[in-house]
Amino acid sequence: MRALVYNGPFDVTVTDVPDATIEAPTDAVVRITTTNICGSDLHMYEGRTGVEPGTVFGHENMGVVEEVGPGVTGLKVGDRVSLPFNIGCGFCANCVARRTGFCLTVNEEMAGGAYGYASMGPYRGGQAELLRVPFADFNALVLPEGTEHENDFTMLSDVFPTGWHGVELSGQRPGESVVVFGAGPVGLMAAHSAMLRGASQVFVVDKQPDRLALAEAYGCTPLDYSAVDVVEQLTDATGGLGVDRGVEAVGYQAHDASGDEDPALTLNQLFASVKATGGIGVVGVYLPQDPGAPTEDLKNGRIALDYGLFFSKGQTMGTGQANVKSYNRELRDLIVAGRAEPGKIVSHELPLEDAPRGYDQFDKRVDGWTKVLLKPAA
Length: 378
Ligand code: NAD
Ligand code: ZN
Description:
This protein is an alpha/beta fold and 378 residues long. It is built from 13 helices and 17 strands.
């Protein structure tokens, strides 16, 4: 089968690899209809991780069940499914508690497994024609038949639940104000989620005009950090009190207004702009053991936080991988009901063979390349 393979920094190709097959009775094989490039793939693409050359990328996958193992009872050939990027077993202590991002069975060492991702287990990615899905009964979410809502449903494997998770971690309640740092796919999904959850106002911070325009299209207030003092604007807009809730959707690759990387910037701006006793949800990645990290400290995930400010304001903060399976069923139903429109962020639909161009343009943050979908069957 054809698959996108990592050769080294900034070098990916589409090539022939052995077909995905059933390896355990509880596996299914899914024929991929849509698989997305994610901001998380760029950490590997840029050579910032220890990912091995030869790895097939792709953790945002959906498709149609092609084959099921003898132990699979809830799925049948022909079912249209979304696959959460986290692979869970369904029976460990964390999966039972709905913390599927921290499955103890699939990846004991790191706690948490994913398709095609550095240090998250041996699972091949889905930027390919076929994908092996472990513990398929537990992991696959069945979607309505047909092809309707394909570009909305494809956001269910990662960015929509991840954005929702960021808002959930912040503790947002209806009527509250929310600020989201980052208007990449994850930040835009957090902003859309906050609106769906009844926010009174949602501010979205970035500097990319195309992404800020999408934030506006979701009913949010855009703030360009390269043009204004973000903390001052947020403080003024909330009568000096600060925003009720904040979401971090940038990660350690945050840039300052002059374009230099400053990994602690957005968290410190959240401490400063969220109100005393407010809540913060962090879904941007602060990657430990990053060989490409500019400093030894960052390699170990250590960054210079204004912890005293966070403490004195009595804020709360939640972090980590999204537990996709905790949310994807309800988010699917919001799409079916016409209430949620996560597919609005899609900028490009490319055949799988064009994936290297998609990586190059999305990585360079070329204006207009917001979310790239790959279609192996096209
Ligand atoms: P992305 O790189 O497309 O988006 C990041 C955005 O942040 C860009 O638009 C960039 O312009 C903006 N930005 C940079 N500096 C900024 C600043 N100082 N203030 C405001 N915005 C700034 O990536 P994405 O796909 O949206 O992912 C965002 C983060 O979420 C990444 O770190 C990714 O690895 C992570 N992620 C986490 C999970 C999870 O489960 N926790 C899942 C998916 C992705
Ligand atoms: Zn992703």
